[in-house]
Specification:
The complex is a heterodimer of chains A (166) and B (876). Chain A is α+β, with helices and mostly antiparallel strands and 166 residues long. Chain A is built from eight helices and four strands; from the N terminus they run H-H-H-H-H-E-H-H-E-E-E-H. Chain A has helices spanning 2-10, 17-24, 33-44, 49-59, 63-72, 92-96, 99-110, 152-165, and strands spanning 84-89, 123-128, 140-142, 145-147. In chain B, 30% of the residues lie in helices and 18% in strands. Chain B starts with 7 loop residues before the first strand and ends with a strand. Classes of the chains: A alpha+beta (166), B alpha/beta (876).
Chain lengths: 166, 876
């Protein structure tokens, strides 16, 4: 029985209702796979395994094909992200103005590297290509908020303030 | 040939005039004309892909020069193509050089070494000192499944495996993952591979990235001793290459050459991985005699002497007609021929049959009726160019997997329609635009076939006037179809008449049609009627439609067809001559050097087992069959073998049947003998030995010769070539086809044409039995055939246990989950078996493969005709 529990914990079963509605709005053609995945991710914030089973059945594609497409695009996530997605700009300007040392700080405090989520499932770190706000370098986007001219300390207190909100 | 017309294109390659059909690419035309062009990602069975960029050629059209990739570029009339120019070589070399930057070059331990396209192309382009810095990959090998090792350091991302898995096999277990520098091929999220294990990905891989782990040898594949032969796992007859090292078969590969074999380089899991039955500790080591219930090893001389003596005494005491034989359907043609000759010429007995002929002699009549109606059926290689394929009650990936490969190719290249009629929701993925499923209620096969015939006529899809003129009893036949109305058919089969109409329209249009019939049709008690109905369906399009129709009788084993051709049947002398045909008997007697032949006594072989049980038959010789496990009358077989005074069994293994014998003889596997098999579609195929017989075993061929000699009636010919020659003389159908190296199909035009419909029979619905609500469906498992495959460790690993398939709704009602054990009980027998819940099974049916001796499915039936009713309960 232990194994079953472990599996359940690993793959949380998500309510398929929203996904069913999304699927029903598209024809059953393989070429709609990417828009479907996009909508599902907007709704569930990632691509949950049990929902992917529905997509496979609906479009009649195999697991290998589905995850082949998903793994091609870094913006598709197959693991549930933290509440806030922390996009740290790693564009040239931000990079030279200290983005790596900010990343080090985040690693030190929250023990997460690129693509990882902290233990409290609050933050998922993403290292982004240029986010187009070089004037405010180094910058980051936390959830929907943009923060410019940050440094390791500012970042830490910023993240702390998000933590306090919870 | 498909009925789709493709025009010829004439152009030049390096100044040589060549012709190609529209729809081909330059590379394929060059290959067929033996003009080499470097390439790594192109295969004639796959769609163009252009991944490796090493096949550039120069083309000139109207004086305009262009550099193009020959694997995707179609030829045009008047085009001039130049290969191997300085310019193309420069481009091709540059791409190959970059592939070599990462490739490990660990050739001494690579399975492809010496037969490696990457090596060949490197050599062809003369890349001996690369200009780039070497940056070898060094990731560990992935061995998460028991069969296929992924050593991706060698992978060059040509995508051949991904495409073969998708296009040829329809499984899509592999795909590209990630992108750019980190792109890799494999399964979703690196999960263990779970697929049909056909190994097509290994065949097409141009490097050693994918390897067959069942092979005991690593590296230097070019130095293995290679023997071309024919697989003996099913009736399809695929050409295989047996590769041996130090006297042991280490692996089996398909022959990837369209000119060799009927399988065009395709092979299935059984054919590739089943070599574990050849060198196996469980093989019988020595002849054995049953002395008071214990088997005692004896010498070959003693065993042969004892058999001959017992045969002779039985003939003397009780008459020749009391000695009977069951000829195995895996014996070669030559062995089958000698087997019947031993009985007919040596003993004067006509009591011989095969298990298929014992159960369903009508299959052979069906084949002859097709010929009499002028339906000769095309060589099976042409199925790759079919316009319509009708798969009737056959789970293709399990029963005729390579047939499935050909149909998928037809769908890609010629847009073939695929009609699958099956009571189960069988999985068959292809690229056809017209995938018609006739999923009928179990047992209603007859209605499906008759309804299709009726629609073809009623809706004038075929030319009814032409049909009327061609077939004399047209009106009686249409009358007999009157019951098969839309309403009746829908009620009996559960299929809406629109779907029937769609199928009939597809089948009736101008087309080259191929009909494959599964052995499952024997299961519902109306096998003969179903075959008659399918015959009518074929006659209707043959005489009333345009194009062609090819229809083949269902066959289960490698030589089920050939054994009957050779006359291992009480109703046929060699070559389908009747046993009362005096002219045939006289010429046979002359050929065999006996005074006269006459078989006027009672035909006891028709009900061979009953006649063993009631004592009419006193001596039974079973050559390479295990009826205790495989015959549908489980307890009759047991009783018959127990009663018969003397039983000889020859086999590779101590089977349940051999356990009951008085004398057991160890014989050779297909890899240790020579001869020919005749496949389901009448192609005569060569069987060649790759290794010498294991231990003390002998080919069946030698055993029959020795018994004939011990009887004092030695065969006039004992040399293989002489026997083959004799067969060609005695059976004119085989003229020019021996020793089977031309893959020729024996011709059907010598059978007198006599077009006649079989009248449609009444549909007998299997009555529902109270307390037994489920219908049983059983056949060969995807990874097993008969019971021998259970001895192959690789097949056992991918198909470890017997699982009974049931539909999720039924599972819900019975509170069952996959993996639970259920008790399956019929009126005759019961056993426990783990369950697999899946949508492949349909409601009200339970599917149990028949290949596990500990799950004796034939005991559930136990001789009952018609579908077997069973009940299911959760085992405590």
């Amino acid at each position: 029985m232990e194994t079953t529990e472990a599996v359940e914990e690993e793959q949380e079963i998500k309510d398929p209702k929203a996904a069913e509605e999304i699927l029903a709005s598209f024809p059953q053609k393989k070429r709609h796979l990417i828009p479907i995945l996009d909508k599902i991710q907007q709704s569930y914030r990632y691509l949950p395994p049990n929902i992917m089973e529905l997509v496979m059945q609906y479009l009649r594609i195999s697991r290998a094909q589905l995850y082949g497409v998903i793994s091609f695009y870094p913006q598709f996530r197959i693991v549930e992200p933290g509440k806030y997605i922390l996009k740290l700009c790693y564009g040239t300007a931000c990079f030279v103005k200290g983005a790596p040392i900010i990343a080090d700080k985040i690693k030190e405090v929250y023990h997460i590297g690129a693509g990882e989520t902290d233990a409290k499932k609050l933050f998922t770190l993403q290292l982004a290509s240029c986010l187009g706000n070089c004037g405010a370098a180094p910058m980051a986007i936390i959830g929907d908020d943009t923060h410019g001219s940050i440094d390791p300390e500012v970042t830490q207190s910023l993240l702390g303030s998000y933590e306090d909100k919870e | 040939m498909s009925t789709v017309e493709r025009k010829d294109i004439n152009f030049k390659i390096n100044g040589k005039e060549v012709t190609a059909k529209e729809g081909t690419v330059i590379l394929d035309v060059a290959k067929r004309n033996d003009i080499p062009i470097t390439n790594l990602c192109s295969h004639r069975n796959l769609k163009p892909f252009a991944a490796c960029r090493t096949c550039m050629v120069e083309v000139n059209v109207d004086g305009k020069k262009e550099l193009v990739y020959s694997c995707t570029h179609p030829p045009e009339d008047g085009m001039e193509v130049y290969t191997n120019t300085d310019e193309t070589n420069r481009y091709n070399s540059a791409c190959l050089e970059m592939l070599l930057v990462e490739h490990p070059l660990d050739c001494p331990i690579c399975d492809k070494s010496g037969v490696c396209p990457l090596q060949d192309n490197t050599d062809a382009l003369g890349i001996f000192d690369g200009r780039f810095e070497i940056n070898r990959r060094n990731e560990p090998s992935i061995k998460t499944n028991p069969i296929i090792e992924f050593y991706l350091n060698r992978c060059i991302m040509c995508g051949m495996c991904v495409r073969a898995c998708d296009e040829i096999q329809g499984v899509q277990a592999l795909d590209f993952h990630k992108r750019g520098m980190s792109v890799t091929i494999g399964t979703a999220n690196e999960e263990p591979l779970d697929c049909e294990f056909c190994g097509q990905c290994i065949t097409v891989c141009p490097t050693g990235a994918l390897m067959d782990m069942t092979s005991e040898a690593r590296g230097l594949a070019a130095l293995f001793a290679k023997t071309e032969s024919t697989c003996d796992y099913c009736s399809w007859g695929c050409s295989v290459r047996l590769e041996a090292k130090k006297g042991k078969v280490v692996r089996i590969e398909p022959i990837d050459d369209e000119k060799v074999g009927i399988n065009n380089g395709n092979l299935c899991a059984k054919g590739r991985l089943g070599h574990g039955i050849i060198h196996n500790d469980e093989r019988i080591q020595s002849p054995m005699m049953n002395v008071g219930g214990n088997f005692k090893e004896v010498s070959w001389e003693e065993a042969i002497e004892a058999i001959a003596e017992r045969m002779q005494t039985t003939v003397n005491r009780n008459g020749a007609g009391t000695v009977a034989g069951i000829g195995g359907e895996k014996l070669t043609n030559e062995e089958s021929y000698l087997f019947q000759k031993l009985f007919r010429a040596g003993l004067g007995s006509n009591q011989i049959t095969t298990l298929q002929n014992l159960r369903a002699p009508y299959i052979n009549s069906f084949m002859l009726k097709c010929f009499e109606n002028g339906i000769h059926s095309k060589p099976i290689m042409e199925m790759e160019e079919a316009d319509v394929a009708l798969v009737f009650n056959s789970d293709l990936p399990s029963e005729y997997p390579v047939g499935g490969n050909a149909i998928r190719k037809a769908a890609i290249n010629f847009g073939a329609d695929i009609i699958i009629a099956n009571p189960r929701n069988v999985i068959f993925n292809s690229e056809t635009k017209n995938d018609i499923r006739l999923q009928f209620s179990a047992g209603s096969d007859l209605v499906v076939a008759n309804r299709l015939t009726r629609i073809l006529i009623d809706s004038n899809i075929v030319d009814v006037d032409k049909l009327k003129k061609a077939v004399p009893n047209y009106s009686q036949m249409t009358k007999s179809l009157s019951k098969y109305t839309a309403k009746f058919a829908e009620k009996a089969t559960g299929i809406n008449d629109d779907v029937f109409t769609q199928a009939a329209e597809s089948f009736g249009k101008k087309a080259d049609r191929f009909v494959l019939i599964g052995n499952d049709i024997l299961e519902n008690g109306q096998g003969q009627e179903i075959l008659d109905a399918l015959l009518n369906l074929a006659i209707v399009v043959h005489h009333g439609g345009e194009g062609s129709v090819s229809i083949y009788p269902p066959r289960e084993h490698a030589n089920s067809q050939g054994a009957i051709d050779m006359g291992v049947a009480p109703q046929f002398l060699p070559g389908y001559k009747g046993t009362d045909d005096q002219t045939a008997l006289t010429s046979l007697a002359n050929a065999w050097g006996v005074e006269s032949l006459s078989f006027e006594g009672e035909n006891l072989a028709e009900a061979l087992l009953e006649n063993c049980r009631n004592g009419s038959l006193k001596f039974l010789y079973i050559a390479g069959e295990n009826p205790v496990n495989s015959y549908y009358k489980g307890s009759l077989v047991r009783e018959a073998l127990k009663t018969v005074s003397f039983l000889v069994v020859q086999d590779l293994y101590m089977t349940e049947t051999a356990e009951m014998a008085d004398i057991v003889l160890p014989v050779s596997s297909f890899a240790e003998k020579d001869g020919t098999f005749t496949n389901i579609t009448r192609h005569v195929l060569p069987v060649n030995h790759a290794v010498i017989p294991e231990g003390n075993s002998k080919p069946d061929y030698d055993v029959f010769c020795e018994i004939a000699e011990a009887l004092g009636k030695p065969f006039s010919n004992t040399d293989l070539a002489d026997v083959q020659n004799e067969i060609e003389q005695v059976i004119p159908l085989y003229k020019g086809l021996m020793p089977g190296d031309k893959y020729g199909q024996w011709p059907a035009d010598s059978f007198a044409e006599n077009p006649e419909f079989a009248l449609a029979s009444e549909f007998k619905e299997t009555s529902d039995k109270k307390d037994f609500p489920f219908k049983l469906i059983s056949n060969n498992h995807m990874f097993h055939s008969g019971s021998h495959s259970q001895r192959s460790s690789a097949l056992k690993e991918i198909g470890p246990e017997c699982r009974a398939g049931i539909h999720p709704e039924d599972a819900k009602k019975l509170k069952l989950q996959s993996g639970d054990t259920i008790q399956v009980q019929s009126e005759n027998h019961k056993f426990n078996v783990p369950v697999e819940v899946s949508f492949v099974s349909t409601q009200g049916t339970v599917y149990i493969p028949k290949n596990w001796t500990e799950i004796p499915v034939n005991m559930l039936r136990n001789g009952e005709e018609g579908l077997v009713s069973v009940k299911i309960s959760k085992a405590g």
